Each structure stands twice: as structure tokens, then as C-alpha cells.
Amino acid sequence: MLCRSMARSSTRLVPMTVRTRFAPSPTGYLHIGGVRTALFNWLFARRHGGQFLLRIDDTDQQRNVDAALAPILHGFRWLGIDWDEGPEVGGPYEPYYQSQRLPQYQAAVQKLLDGGFAYRDYATAEEIQAEREAATAEKRPFLYSRTWMAETPEQQAKFQSQGRLWVVRLKMPREGKLIIDDQVRGQVEFLWEREQDHVIQRNDGTCLYHLASVVDDFDFQISHVIRAEEHLSNTPRQIFIAQSLGYPLPVYAHLPFVAEPGSKNKLSKRKLDKYLKNRDFAQTNEHGLEISRRLNLQNTAETFNPVIVDFYEQVGYLPDAIINYLVLLGWSLDDKTEFMTRQQMIENFSLERVTKAPASFDAKKLWAVEDHYMQQLPLKQKVPMMLRFLQTAGLVPTPTPCEVGPQLTKIVEAAGDRLKTAGDIIAYADFFFLPEQLPESAFDAKAVEKSLKKPGAGALLAKFKTALEAVEPFEPAPLEAALHGFVEREGIKAGDIVHPLRVAVSGKGVGPGLYDCLSLLGKQTCLKRIDRAIKMAGNS
RNA sequence: GGCCCCGUCGUCUAGCCUGGUCUAGGACACCGGCCUUUCACGCCGAUAACACGGGUUCAAAUCCCGUCGGGGUCACCA
Hints:
Elements lengths: L18 E4 L9 H16 L3 E4 L10 H15 L22 H13 L3 E4 L3 H13 L11 E2 L2 H9 L5 E4 L6 E6 L3 E6 L7 E3 L7 H11 L4 E5 L6 H10 L6 E5 L2 E2 L12 H4 L3 H16 L14 H7 L3 H9 L14 H7 L10 E2 L2 H14 L2 H14 L11 H12 L8 H10 L11 H8 L4 H13 L6 H15 L3 H13 L7 H8 L1 H16 L2
Parallel strand pairs: 1-2, 9-10, 11-12
Antiparallel strand pairs: 3-4, 3-5, 5-8, 6-7
This protein binds one RNA strand of 78 nucleotides through α4, β7, β8, α6 and β12.
């Protein structure tokens, strides 16, 4: 009975009540691959008007769950992936923490024991290990001999008298095959005889993941189990548990995992050093680090890198961009649609169009999507976002002086599409908020060397300063006219004055349009900064 | 090693189920050019893929078989 195939028609309609879940372990951070899995679950539930829930898999670590969970919940909220049931929001099936559901698990174990689908096993770890090694030596698949299996009180008494402790193992079928009809991979076959008698309850009475997961999915009425591919090989034992317990089976869908940059290996948080050798990944990381430094954030490489969602929030990426990038990792709407609103994603998402092969994480592509979204973002929304970064960096005081708002709006407008993330405002606009006398640290050494210390730069600056004093109004168009007139009179190239001038007023070689910079800075500040620069140029 | 999964440009993908319209489309990256006061944007262009071998067929990226390659998983972790 357990061996019969469970083929489903792939054209079956999705049941009326769709309920999906994502089950994070409280680890203290939210992994980008996990978010992708959660996103697909969320989209599928929303697509079919169902519920998406969060269940906390904390059977292993009872301590500090709240602290380790907070960043994860925060990450989901930031991304706009809301959950209908779970931590903080509750729900009809509370609690949603595995650590608080031991009685339910134990009851299920008892039921399995009573039905003969599981047994008490008195073997020691060494004995099991010896069998395993023997099998390896003989080059045959390992299958537990069940020597210390005790199904009757007599057997149990015998082993117990030997001072043995027991665990509960699944009594897996040893013949026939299982066919899983996976919504992404199609039919997948497994031979029952290759499945191990996995432990489902430890000798201290606590239960293990597979048992807990199946019981939870049933208790929470999960209709679709959508998870990463690495769980595919766990599925037979979970189906065995579910069937033995008389549960209806959920629909399974195994997503390809998110792979490392430029490779097919599963993305993990532990191989950061390796990913940093990937140029695109390293650039994204460095960009974030630079902003983090300016923000004086106390980050460690452990929790602040492009594999962790928190990284993107701190650097000032847009949640919509992250989501849009992630939805494209293993799923496509059609042959050309790249940018979608959440509504469009929800309306179009289907498991059918999920790819089978792993998709590598491409930091450059994410960057391009972010670029697009930032350019689309209305100025009114950009400004407050950037203001927060300037304040965190200590460039603008809190509360915000009233003149900052309008000025910042102009600055952001002038910076235009140079701003890819909100954190970029610091590098592009800090000099607007620095004192008239720019601190030494505000000068880019290379730019000073290249433009300011170029022979003749100081003298040119001094001459142009005079011309600048007469410009009225001090706005982009008259400024441009003044500069061009100056270039003509002096018989020089525009670049000869433009570059030193930019470094003089901003300290950098790159930035928003020069005339915008001058105008926004105001005549007084410009003149003073030019004076300073003339001295710097002369010192060479 | 056993079992399972996967294999279209460097990367994300469309096409595959329902062979022909695919001399394989889009996007990102890369390279070249234009624009330009820097940077960025934008625009134009170029390079670039059906893992391999058989078979079926008038016709195969698409169907079948095999090979090779890559990955996942084999816990009293989740």
C-alpha cells in the first residue's frame, strides 16, 4: 500500500485553499537563497488567494531564539513579504515554533509506533557505525540489520536490562518503489529499499526534523510544500511518515537552489572568501563596505556581505529591486519581460515556469535591476530615503534643518542616475554638507594630484575666480556661459579649467554636473574653496 | 561510492511537453563606438550557446537510447 505510486495528473487544478510555508531556523541572518524560496512560496499563495505562513524550525537551538529570529523577520518585512500566520502575528494553529510543539510530535511518534511504522531501536551509535562501515567495505548500500529493533515488551526488557538506551526509528518499507509527482521536476522515482530507518525521536524524547516537519505541515494544513531541491531526497521518508499517520499528502515542488557566483554549487554563507574572488561579487561587496564605513556601521564580514539580505538594506538598495531580481532567478514570465510589479508577479506566477537547473547568483545583474528601480523612483521618495543616510553618516543634523529639504531635492536631482543605491548619496553629495573649508579627508588624493597639481592649474583657477565673482545669477546657465567665455579668452581647453575647478569645490574628480555643483554650493562657498585650492596647487 | 536531480551565449533565461516559422530570441556582463566638463545615464554595434554520440524522421535544441560532465543527498542538523 505504501509502495503504490502516487502519481498525480500534472494538469490538476490547484485546490481551493492554498497554504504554503517557509520554515527558517533562527540563525540571526536571512540568506538570499532562503528569501528566493520564501518568495516563491509567498507568490504562489498570493496567486491562488491562499495563505503564506512562517514556521520556526528551532528544534535544535532553544536559546536566544527571539534574538536570532528578529533579523529574519525584519528582513521579510523590509522586503514586503508578509506572512498570514506565524511569529508575531499568531494564527489559528499556534504555536508556530517547533520548540513548543513537542507534545504533538511525541503523539505522532506514538501513533507510528502503535501502527508498526516505527520501532524502538536499542543499538548504540558504535554498532550502527560498524554496520555502516561494513557495508561500505563490501561496496553494498547500507541498510540497518534491525538487530536491536525491539517491537515487543519482552525484547525491550531484554535490551533495557543490558543498560541500552533507545531511540525511535522509522520502519521503512524494503521493497517496491515510490513515485513522487513533483510540480517542478515531474515524476521522480525512488526505491524504498534504499531508504534508511531514520531516527525520528532521540533517547531524551525530543524529535527530529523530518517527523516534526511532516506533523507541522499537516497540523498547519499546508497544501503545497515548495522548498529547495536539497530536500528532494528527504521526501520519501516524509511521505512515508505522512502516509503512515494517515495524512493526505501535500503537493511537492522542489525548486532548484541558488548557486554560487559563476558556479553550480549551492550558495552558502560559509564560502565568502571564494565568492570574493568573483569580480562582480567583490565589487558589490566593496561598494557596500565603503558605504558601511561612511555610516560607521559595526558590521562583520559574517553578517554583512551580498549573500545576506541585511546587507542590501544597510547599503540602501530598494526592496522592489531585490524581489524583482530574485523572482527572475529560476522563474520567468515569458521570453522578454524583465521588470514586474509585485502585482504582475502575483498574477503570473506559476510553478510550471520554474526552471529545473540551478541559477547562479549574479551580483552585476542585481545591480542592473537596482539601477533601473532607483531611476524609476520618484524624487519625492528618493529624497527622504537619502536624507536618512546623510543623517546616519553625520552629514546632516537631526532633526533636519528646514533648509536641507529643498536643497537636498536639488542635489538629488543633479546627481540623477548616478545614485544607484541610497547610500551612494554620501559619496556623491557629502561636499555639499561639509564646512566651507573642506577637511583634508574630503579630498581625493588622486584627483588632487591629477587636476589640481597640474602645472598652471593654480593660476588658471585664480583668474577664473575673478570671472566667477561677476556671475549673476549664480545659476547653471550663466555659469556655463562664463566658463565658456573664459576658455575662449584664455585660449585653453575646457578641461583645463573644468577639472581643477571640480576638485577645488568638491574635493573629487567625479560627481554631479559641474554647473549644478557650483550653483548649489553658492558663490561664497565656491570662492572660498577655490582660494584654498589655489594654495594647495601652489604648494606642489 | 549508492541513490536522486540537472545540462541552450560568461551569467539569468525564451524555445522543448504539442518536431519545421530557430541560419536559436531577450536581458545582464564583457568589448568597440557615439554623446560628453568628470562620472553615470542614454544610443549604436560586435563577440558569444543548443555537452557529446547514436537512433527515429523528409525535417531534432525539441522525441528515444547511450555516454560524458556538473550538482544535491546519504546524521540521534535543519
